[in-house]
Design brief:
The chain has helices spanning 14-18, 33-42, 93-107, 125-131, and strands at residues 4-8, 47-54, 57-66, 77-84, 112-117, 134-138, 144-149. The protein starts with a strand and ends with a strand. It has 150 residues and is α+β, with helices and mostly antiparallel strands.
Length: 150
């Protein structure tokens, strides 16, 4: 496996990030990267959009939110979105991105990061479990809330 690198979302990588293709069936569990780009534009002081590069090719996208004053504790230090290209899944790209976000959260003084996702057969529950997230609750819409202690 080549070396992975995390870089800021920028004009030079935004198109590649926006065209990441997931495995069939995964689309129902994550909004398109374009939604994250819009959210980052609207929330520039708290959004943390990054792409994962492998040999200068965009293979993943992650966006965190760092807002210690957020009314809902689940949104103070959290993963808003993670997308990994279908052909890069299973190669450590997602783990790399999540652990980089966790390092950033730790450097900002957070003691955990959270993620909210829809449960389902093709959903991300097993991925987050493998990294060490533990279920801490459920939203009123039936989504899982999980946390990773830092």
């Amino acid at each position: 496996m080549s070396e992975l690198k995390l870089v800021e979302l920028s004009a030079s990588n935004i198109v590649a990030a926006n065209t990441l293709t997931l495995k069939p069936g995964q689309e129902q569990y994550v909004a398109p990267v374009s939604h994250s780009i819009a959210e980052a534009y609207v929330n520039p002081s708290t959004a943390w959009p990054r792409v994962v590069l492998e040999d200068d090719e965009v293979v993943g996208f992650i966006m965190g939110n760092f807002d210690p004053e957020a009314a809902e504790v689940e949104f103070r230090g959290c993963i808003w979105r993670i997308n990994v290209a279908a052909d890069a899944q299973g190669h450590g790209v997602g783990r790399f991105a999540v652990l980089a976000l966790a390092d950033e959260a730790r450097s900002r003084g957070f003691d955990r990061i959270t993620v909210i996702f829809e449960p389902g057969e093709d959903g991300p529950a097993a991925f987050f479990d493998r990294i060490g997230f533990e279920t801490i609750g459920e939203t009123p819409y039936g989504e899982t809330i999980a946390a990773l202690p830092l």
